[in-house]
């Protein structure tokens, strides 16, 4: 049941957050950092922005990212 709740929440976020709902290629930037097995993704649409970090390691790792100013 918990996995189903997670999927439902993710689908709701996709509908509610414009940066996730509008899939324009020009507003989607991704960067793979193979050395650290990390994928960074930044998407925006109008005033909506989202930044995702995907860790493909089997354990948690420390990694610093310089974010643009603002509330994240």
Give the topology.
Elements: H1 2-16, H2 18-21, E1 28-33, E2 38-45, E3 48-55
Antiparallel strand pairs: 1-2, 2-3
Report what the structure shows.
The chain is an alpha+beta fold and 72 residues long. The protein has one domain (2-55). The protein contains two helices and three strands. A three-stranded antiparallel β-sheet has the order 1-2-3. A hairpin with a 4-residue loop joins strand 1 (28-33) and strand 2 (38-45). The longest helix has 15 residues, at 2-16. It is globular, with a radius of gyration of 14 Å. The protein starts with a helix and ends in a 17-residue tail after the last strand. 3% of the residues are buried. The model has no long low-confidence stretch (mean pLDDT 90).
Strand line-up in the sheet with most strands: 1-2-3
Q: How much helical structure, as a percent, in the residues?
A: 25-40%
Uncertain spans, ≥5 residues at pLDDT below 50? none
Report the average pLDDT across residues: 90
Largest sheet entry:
3 strands, antiparallel
Basic shape: globular
Distance between the termini: 29 Å
Order of helices and strands: HHEEE
Report the count of strand segments. 3
Integer-rounded radius of gyration: 14 Å
Number of domains: 1
As a percent range, the share of strand residues is 25-35%
The number of helical elements comes to 2
Structural class: alpha+beta
What's a quick, concise take on this entry?
By secondary structure, the protein is of the alpha+beta class.
For this entry, give a set of tags:
single chain, 72 residues, alpha+beta, 3-stranded antiparallel beta sheet, 31% strand, globular
């Amino acid at each position: 049941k918990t996995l189903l709740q997670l999927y439902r929440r993710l689908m709701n976020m996709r509908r509610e957050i414009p940066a996730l709902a509008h899939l324009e290629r020009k507003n989607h930037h991704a960067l793979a950092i193979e050395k650290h097995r990390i994928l960074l993704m930044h998407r925006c649409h109008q005033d909506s922005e989202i930044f995702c970090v995907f860790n493909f390691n089997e354990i948690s790792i420390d990694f610093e990212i310089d974010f643009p100013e603002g509330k994240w």
